[in-house]
């Protein structure tokens, strides 16, 4: 029998293939070399200066749009993609957000709903990290209820003209292409907008106290004129953006287990080394209760992520099941981060340790891609048959 492994107490790693373990090691090594030494500094400065360089390195590893087929994408499994997300978010949720928005929102939107021309033009560059994408759905006055969006696309001859504002858009200021959702006479449609199109601006949002090592922007669309071919031909109505969100939420289900694991491992190391009242605080029952609860939370989250990943690979994963994962794994990761923070005492609030950074990042993760409340209502509706959204 194998020994008990505190890093993998339930032996979940045995469920992963050799290739998946190798992928995990490669992503972990990239994070160890290029992200971990700098991320606290980026976070403190509220900048993500290496985003472009990192995108190219991530492109070389094949993790951008990795679960998509063709057009330079890796065509990997859903579990492979999840394993990568877990490692990326163990470094920082901002890094995983870069990859999620690139691969699951912008690239997936083009891959699933775009024309052959869109795919040829954008996907190979985006898979290589040579072009960065963003995804504009949320508006200043419309977040959880995107059906009420006011950004409009109107016909002018054979062109489209877009007007409106999008808010809280990850990668916005560094993007080469934006997938923007707007109301049209036919319903909500998606548009592939090169960010150098006249009338498009993406000022960066400042004063964030969460996801500080991530670019978040407003998108300003002022009479942005696009050719007819800019519209995503496949998507009319909210099923277009919702299908993309479902992909990204799946990545979050895995990603947050990485952030939680990093908090647990930091707390465990700290508790073993920190002495009070003449012995390591790891020897106190109250500390052990916290560590045991954290370990159970992290491993339950990993099991749920793996279960959903297997269903996704089998083609049986339902959006309501993704809501289970998004709701509970983010909530659980936040609990772990908050508990780990207490184990570190005053050091728990210092950027010398990753815990407070993960904790504040997870506050954004709780809100974006459908708030905790929205996922609870989705599950509630699935259980009861009654819609409590409005
Ligand atoms: P609101 O919808 O105003 O909700 C406020 C509160 O009311 C929440 O608690 C919500 O759950 C609750 N609430 C609303 N309706 C109900 C109801 N019917 N019943 C019960 N409670 C309800 N968006 C993008 O399009 N692209 C991005 O790349 C992107 N990146 C982001 C990055 C960051 C760092 C953040 C913080 C957000 C990002 N978002 C992005 C936006 C995010 O998806 C929205 O913030 C989210 O959908 C919630 O919308 P809102 O902030 O407008 O909150």
Automatic annotation (TrEMBL):
Q: Which residues form the Acyl-CoA oxidase/dehydrogenase middle domain?
A: 134-224
Which cofactor is essential here? FAD
Q: Which residues form the Acyl-CoA dehydrogenase/oxidase C-terminal domain?
A: 237-383
Q: Which residues form the Acyl-CoA dehydrogenase/oxidase N-terminal domain?
A: 17-130
Query: What UniProt keywords apply to this chain's record, in alphabetical order?
Result: FAD, Flavoprotein, Oxidoreductase, Transit peptide
Q: Which Pfam families match?
A: Acyl-CoA_dh_1 (PF00441), Acyl-CoA_dh_M (PF02770), Acyl-CoA_dh_N (PF02771)
Checking InterPro entries in the record gives: Acyl-CoA_Oxase/DH_mid-dom, Acyl-CoA_Oxase/DH_mid-dom_sf, AcylCo_DH-like_C, AcylCo_DH/oxidase_C, AcylCoA_DH/ox_N, AcylCoA_DH/ox_N_sf, AcylCoA_DH/oxidase_NM_dom_sf, Glutaryl-CoA_DH_mitochondrial
PANTHER family tied to this protein: GLUTARYL-COA DEHYDROGENASE, MITOCHONDRIAL
Q: Which family does it belong to?
A: Belongs to the acyl-CoA dehydrogenase family.
Name of this chain's protein: Acyl-CoA dehydrogenase family protein
Source organism (scientific name): Saccharopolyspora gregorii
């Amino acid at each position: 029998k194998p020994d008990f492994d505190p890093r993998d107490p339930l032996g979940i790693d045995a469920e992963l293939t050799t290739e998946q373990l190798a992928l995990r090691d490669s992503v972990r090594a990239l994070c160890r070399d290029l992200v971990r030494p700098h991320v606290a500094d980026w976070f403190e400065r509220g900048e993500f200066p290496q985003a472009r360089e990192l995108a190219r390195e991530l492109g070389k590893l094949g993790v951008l749009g990795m679960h998509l087929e063709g057009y330079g994408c890796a065509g990997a499994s859903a579990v492979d993609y999840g394993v990568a997300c877990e490692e990326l978010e163990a470094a920082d949720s901002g890094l995983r957000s870069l990859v999620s928005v690139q691969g699951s929102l912008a690239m997936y939107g083009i891959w699933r709903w775009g024309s052959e021309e869109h795919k040829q033009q954008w996907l190979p560059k985006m898979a290589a990290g040579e072009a960065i994408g963003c995804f504009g759905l949320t508006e200043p006055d419309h977040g959880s209820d995107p059906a009420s969006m006011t950004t409009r696309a109107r016909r002018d001859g054979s062109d489209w003209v877009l007007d409106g504002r999008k808010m809280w858009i990850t990668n916005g200021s560094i993007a080469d292409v934006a997938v923007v959702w707007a109301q049209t006479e036919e319903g909500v449609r998606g548009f592939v907008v090169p960010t150098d199109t006249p009338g498009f601006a993406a000022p960066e949002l400042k004063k964030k106290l969460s996801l500080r090592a991530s670019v978040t922007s407003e998108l300003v669309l002022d009479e942005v004129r696009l050719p007819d071919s800019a519209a995503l031909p496949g998507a009319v109505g909210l099923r277009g953006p919702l299908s993309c969100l479902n992909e990204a939420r799946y990545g979050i289900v895995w990603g947050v287990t990485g952030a939680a694991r990093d908090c647990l491992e930091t707390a465990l190391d700290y508790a073993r080394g920190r002495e009070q009242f003449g012995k390591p605080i790891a020897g106190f029952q109250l500390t052990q209760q916290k560590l045991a609860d954290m370990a159970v939370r992290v491993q339950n989250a990993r099991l749920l992520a793996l279960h959903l990943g297997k269903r996704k690979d089998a083609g049986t994963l339902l959006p309501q099941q993704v809501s289970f994962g998004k709701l509970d794994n983010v909530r659980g990761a936040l609990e772990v981060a908050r508990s780990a923070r207490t184990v570190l005492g005053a050091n728990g609030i210092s950027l010398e340790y990753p815990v407070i950074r993960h904790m504040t990042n997870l506050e954004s993760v709780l809100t974006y891609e459908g708030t905790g409340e929205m996922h609870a209502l989705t599950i509630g509706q699935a259980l009861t048959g009654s819609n409590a959204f409005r």
